[in-house]
Each structure stands twice: as structure tokens, then as C-alpha cells.
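Team,

Forwarding the record for the chain on the shared tracking sheet. I've put the sequence and predicted structure together so nobody has to dig through attachments.
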Amino acid sequence: MSLSLLHSSTGRNTGGLVEEIKAKLKRELAGLYQEGVAIFFDEDKNQQSTKGRKTKRSTAEPETQHVPIHMRYQSWYSKALPVVRQLLPERYTEFQEQYKLDKRKEKQIDFLTYTVSDYLLGITVTRGYQKEEVVHPFTAFAAKFQNQLTILHSASDRIDSLLAEVESVLQSEMFRNELEAADDLLKKKHLRAAGALAGVALETHLVRVSINHSIKLAKKSPTISDINEALKTASVIDVPVWRHIQLLGDVRNLCVHGKEREPTYDEVVGLISGTKQIISTIF
């Protein structure tokens, strides 16, 4: 989705769009994590039943055809790997190495170097004539798979910070486009339209600042004056900045309320330039 399409389809509610995307990504990530957990516990159950299996099959449980562990795991790993690469690039190599170690000598296979791929291939490690077991395959597999699941689970926390960055980029692009449009309208002497557009950018930015500082606004649809007052009360802005924003809000009101007098060219110029200043200095 391009930014222009995003603006036309979502208006100015980039925050709502980001929250929607965030919720969707977290649902999908949780589903992928639960899929891995199910694979792990099914294989654990399979190992337990194999240990206690007797030659006589119980008639109490019908025979079912299960998808082999290597097929289920490989499908899960193929989906999980790019997720980790995108959300946790600093742990991508670690996640991969739980599955397979490229730089490993054949005679150096022990519990630390035994990987998930070894387990899926049925590789066992013994020593001496007595074939003493060096690595218990399922124990090593379980440790490595659980490490992968832990890494994947931690990726959920990264979604918030990454999408906060995306939202910031979207907001910045939106403000830039709106203020450029306001400048263009000003050149064409459409003073009210130019001021209204700049006022929307100012109001949207002030709402974002209040969210950044965890300020709860009393009104469901607060005005620039309401937000400005809340920011001053919370000491986010000082009195000179508060007065400046109040003046910008007054000019914006002139532009959007037809019953008031016509805004002057200089007033709209001041609104646009003042909005640019507030956006670039108040966060």
C-alpha cells in the first residue's frame, strides 16, 4: 500500500490503521507460536507413548494417521524464520543455529552442537563398543526447539516499537503532504482552505503529543484549545508555546467558521509556518 493510497483510504487516522495492523500481526504471531507449541507437545507425547508402547495395540483408541514430525516442523520453521528475521534480526542467527549448525565437525557432536535437524534426520551419537549414548536425541531436540519458541514469543514485544516507528513515518509524511497542499492553496489565494488544512495537521500532531506523554483528554473530540491546555497543565509545553498554539488555533477557527471575519493572508502564512515549527519542535 502506497502512502498516497493510505491517505485516501484512511483519512488522517494513521493511529487507527497502525493499531489494526498491530492487532493482526500479534494474532498471527500468537498463532504461529501456538502451532510450534502444539508440535512440541505432540512429539513429547509421541516419545512417551513410544517408551511405553507394547506389542498389543489398545482397542480403546482408534488408529489415526498423523503428519510426521519432520513435515510439521519444517512447515512451521519456514514460516517462523522470516518472522524472526524481520522482527528480531539480532537473534536471527541464534534462531537458525538451533535448527542447524553449518560450521560443525562431525566428531564434535555433543549436547550443545546437536540440532533440531539432527533429530529430524534420526541422527544418534554414541561412543565405544558398548554404543554408549552421548546425546539423548529428544532431550537435545526439546532444548533447541524450546529456545526457538522462546525467541519467537519475545518477538511480540518488538511489534509495538517497530509499528510506533512506522506510525511516526506515516504521520511525518502525512503532515508534509498536507502542509505542502496548504502552501499550494495559499499561493492560489484560497486562504480558508489553506488554513483549515494546516489546522488539521496541527490538531493531529497535538493529539499524538498528548498520547506520547500519556495525557488523557477529557473530551471525546477535543479542540486545539483543549489539547493545548492539557499539554500546559502536564508541563509538556511552557506558557510562551501555549500562547503561540492558542494563537494558531484562533486563526484556524477563523478559517473553518464562515460566520467569523475572513482570515488575512498574513494570518494564514503564520498558521502554516507556526504549525511547521510546532511539529518539528514539540514531540
